[in-house]
Amino acid sequence: MTETVGSATGRARGKAKSTTGGSRSAGAKLRVGRVHTTEGVHPYDAVNWQHRDVVMTNWRDGSVNFEQRGVEFPDFWSVNAVNIVTSKYFRGAVGSEHRENSLRQLIDRVVGTYVAAGVEHGYFETDADAEIFEHELTHMLLHQVFSFNSPVWFNVGTSSPQQVSACFILAVDDTMESILNWYREEGLIFKGGSGAGLNLSRIRSSKELLSSGGTASGPVSFMRGADASAGTIKSGGATRRAAKMVVLDVDHPDIEEFVETKAREEQKIRALRDAGFDMDLGGDDIVSVQYQNANNSVRVSDEFMRAVESGTNFGLRSRTTGETVEEVDARRLFDRIARAAWECADPGIQYDTTINDWHTCPESGRITASNPCSEYMHLDNSSCNLASLNLMRFLGEDGVFDADLFERSVELVITAMDISICFADFPTPEIGDTTRKFRQLGIGYANLGALLMATGHAYNSDGGRSLAASITSLMTAVSYRRSAELAGIVGPYEGYARNADAHQRVMRKHAAANDLIRTHNQNDSAIQARATTAWQRGLEVGARHGWRNAQASVLAPTGTIGLMMDCDTTGIEPDLALVKFKKLVGGGSMQIVNQTVPRALRALGYQQEQSEAIVEYIAEHGHVVDAPGLRPEHYEVFDCAMGERAIAPMGHVRMMAAVQPFISGAISKTVNLPERATVEDVAEIYREGWRLGLKALAIYRDNCKVGQPLSAGKSKSAAEEAPEPVVEYRPVRKRLPKKRPSQTVSFTVGGAEGYLHAGSYPDDGLGEIFVKLGKQGSTLAGVMDAFSMSISVGLQYGIPLEFYVSKFQNLRFEPAGMTDDPDVRIATSVLDYLFRRLALDYLPLEKRAELGIFSVAERSAQVAGESGDGTEPVDLEGMRSTVEAGQAPERPTSGAGSSTELLELRQGKEADAPLCFTCGTKMRPAGSCYVCEGCGSTSGCS
């Protein structure tokens, strides 16, 4: 066998500990056929490579966040994908000779380890099979067909522990030792940049007695300690910030206190913010607010939901005896859950009976919790490693989904995922033991929203749901079929024998659900037929050999890896908006109409000239309403998560319901509601989620959070430290007339709000400023008044404004951080912001150029090679050529730093999305988490 680059190294590293689990079969081993590759041609030799310089700057102030020059990538990888992989996944100290500098090195490091472990643990029939497997994985990663989750790229093949899992579930019992161990284990997981979830329902309630005779504290009180610990750690690892999930059963006596925790804190945030305290994330005063570092979810049973529907009472049960300690009105409790979610988006809801009805291993324990993003649900003290396929890579130019290629690709990916458990490390011995015994996997996909649009399907349509269900069913059916085949080669998972009947029952449930899919066209009919065959074959093989994995599939947020694969949409999500943000080589950015739009228009039968006009209209308006030549019945194909034609909340719920029967775990997704939505709207969504058989559901109502995270900067009254200007001469004072032109600018710096009033001479030129910052009568307000007067007098005595600007720009003290001004989005202090803003308003371009101060329009014009006036004529011929090439016309971003901010400019209102803690741009939704388009940082799993 000819060994490819990096294979020897990978195989040496792959000789890891762990067992394959179960008893090994004496049957034939795995034969691997070529799917994407050609014999005799290495995947690296079939692409064009180019060297690029990765210089990631905060485009708002020009500061460099990351720099590595001369990295090597295929020429078809986007700037964004190259930037994210280089900054996030390349290992080694930046600037050292040991730093990875090519995608080849990264892929070889990971794939070599997987193949070596597969050889060591007896997966492959021959060395030739191992080589083909290596080539196939390399090709798929190289061509963005799929991606492993981030921990694989962070850790595999390095000297670090070989952690491959992003999702963890912990356990806590009703003892102080267990509770303190919970704090410790959660802290270690956060430190490594991952997240964890757990159920606190075993902890006795505050209405029960301790063995010593005292009253128990209850789980909510212990949540305070865990929240403080998480807030202190802030997932301070080098890779990303993480999250946590806290679950409580609906029959716990402290359930009402749990439901109200975050809603009460939101009321506190509102009151403190109105009183002038800095309540933005990272501010000094936010630490007084509790429970902000976790997602909360209530576990509801069918018994409870039936009581809600019938309006009867429901019993809350003692944790120690199981007896009913209190009867509550089920409908009133459910309404409190809905109201709390309406107020602050928490708690979400998890449907316990449904979850455990689809549980493959009930004899080994119930499923009680989920990971932070709610897609992984299995035994306590377990983990799940994820991988996601890029669905658009399987859509042909003829609009037909290549089900055969998809099926064979799933076989390869699920095999690699199972091999990873053979060499993986885990954060605790208990998690490692459970994962090796049950081998939970989480294959999924991204780009569903783009696929539906490209094939002419509305996201909220029967046809769209049918296609999504068929693809999901095929993915999970093939995964479990391959799992059964692997069981015949290297043995079933260790816990299978005890759970064989239950596991087979769940497989039959999946297969039966597949038979109920109502297909609507040739695409989904062909896919569903293949899924039927795969389920039948999987059941036959599984009956003989069992299954290698207790779980096969989830639908994760695919935040960072979605950007790595150049996906337009993440996970199960629809498109965010029709106009997006695009980074350009060499810096700068443009806005583009989604490249899926021209393809969708072709699928719907529009001619080239019609498509050109429609795309041009979308570029101008951001939506399709009244687009020339577009038939109204086709509007729904272009509906998005936000914007002029936003998908109705129940449309998201129905899409989740369509695919849930074909997912081993659950779905990471938040259902967004408009601000005008009512408590009853939330309650109806939670009820419908139960009726439709979902496992978990979370909602977010627009603008429901007063304490929306806006900045990582602190806010304190340091403005009084501002230096006084030095006057070196005695010029004549030129006073302003009693009536003079002026303007007022409201601003926010690092969460501190203020107003700048600037008065001018009638013949031009700044003559006075007044700065309002802090409550009237406070020391800060007085100091700023005095500072404003001193600057005003200096201006009137002839001190040039550019002198002040040169002295005060870049002056550093708190409050500092993000602002709400598109031209000056990061300021090192309030004075830094004020004088940059004054320079933009009152200094000519040539003087500002000397100071390095430009508006967003001027920076965009510089990138585009313009003169600096921020305008650019529309090139209709150029736009026509790009549309003919299957692309969308580009325009300057006009002050946006991400797709979310671009959408804000279109809608004229602020989006409820946090700012990235790494680069400061506004993140976009990805499942129930958020992802930064600038640097790839996420708030959860990917």
UniProtKB/TrEMBL annotation:
Query: Which SUPFAM superfamilies does the entry link to?
Result: PFL-like glycyl radical enzymes
Instruction: Give a Pfam family name.
Output: Ribonuc_red_2_N
Where the record annotates domain Ribonucleotide reductase large subunit C-terminal, the positions are: 165-700
Instruction: Tell me where in this chain the Ribonucleotide reductase class II vitamin B12-dependent N-terminal domain is found.
Output: 54-144
Which cofactors are required for activity? adenosylcob(III)alamin
What InterPro entries is this protein classified in?
RdRp_reductase_class-2, RNR_2_N, RNR_lg_C, RNR_NrdJ/NrdZ, TSCPD_dom
Which stretches make up the TSCPD domain?
737-841
User: E.C. number, please?
Assistant: 1.17.4.1
What keywords does the record list, in alphabetical order? Cobalamin, Cobalt, Disulfide bond, DNA synthesis, Nucleotide-binding, Oxidoreductase
Reactions catalysed, semicolon-separated, are: a 2'-deoxyribonucleoside 5'-diphosphate + [thioredoxin]-disulfide + H2O = a ribonucleoside 5'-diphosphate + [thioredoxin]-dithiol
List every stretch annotated Disordered: 1-30
EC supergroup of this enzyme: oxidoreductase
Function comment:
Catalyzes the reduction of ribonucleotides to deoxyribonucleotides. May function to provide a pool of deoxyribonucleotide precursors for DNA repair during oxygen limitation and/or for immediate growth after restoration of oxygen.
Q: Which PANTHER family match?
A: RIBONUCLEOSIDE-DIPHOSPHATE REDUCTASE (PTHR43371:SF1), VITAMIN B12-DEPENDENT RIBONUCLEOTIDE REDUCTASE (PTHR43371)
Annotated family = Belongs to the ribonucleoside diphosphate reductase class-2 family.
Q: What is this protein called?
A: Vitamin B12-dependent ribonucleotide reductase
